[in-house]
Amino acid sequence: MPELPEVEALALDLGSRLDGHAIAKIHVAAFSALKTFDPPLSALEGTMVDGVTRHGKFLDIEASGLHLILHLARAGWVRWRDEVPTIPPKPSTKSTLAVRVVLDDQSGLDITEAGTRKSLAMYVVRQPLDVPGIASLGPDPLTDDFTIDRLAEILEREGRKQLKGVLRHQGTIAGIGNAYSDEILHAAKMSPFKPASGLTDGELATLYDAIRTTLGDAVDRSRGLHASELKGEKKTNLAVHGKAGQKCPVCGDTVLSVSFADSSLQYCPTCQTGGKPLADRRMSKLLK
User: Fold this and answer.
1) Is the preceding omega at residue 39 within 30 degrees of 0, hence cis?
2) What is the pTM of this model?
3) Residue 4 has pLDDT above 50, yes or no
């Protein structure tokens, strides 16, 4: 799933590619992806692209005062095409294509979504806050107003909730998903199940530094890369996420995996949990 660093890099890459272009046509191949009807999709035809920005994990293409906003969800991606086919795409359950944006020079974007679980969303709105998911976002962890005091307030408010869930909840902190929450907690040497409000002042400082450094470094590595290179860059630099069964790059212990919410998390027992494996609580409930 694209998270803050990848969406930030996508915005930078697409901003340079779309600059000075007009949107000629938008073809929707997966009708379930379009979540709005006013303004109509046709309102974007002939508009000039003014810029591309990010709100959490939402990608925002602004064109002549309107906003084409994309949430790529679990398996979505944006692919640049120097030349798009002249024949409009037909809806098909066998294709990964969800939306095609055609520019005035016949170049464009293919927004794709792999897998059968279709969650990719596209909105055409007059302002970003018209998208419910953007209106409910928590603070961006890389902005200047995301201070250690603000993090302390968030953790205190979340009480006994587990750090893993707090970090990846978009209404609490924007942009961090399953992968980077694993990476942040590994960098901070903290258990994913540690209660949010149970941190000492030293642990709070460690977690804050881990958030800013992990995300900031990922953004720096991604800056300047083309969209086609971003997935590979992310996977190459992950320490524990998706690395179950491999060696921890810090201590050499075996990275373990455990079910969490609707997915799974990965962690190093030596670095994060005092050498003790975490209980798979989702499996435990099923066995009762």
Assistant:
1) yes
2) 0.91
3) yes
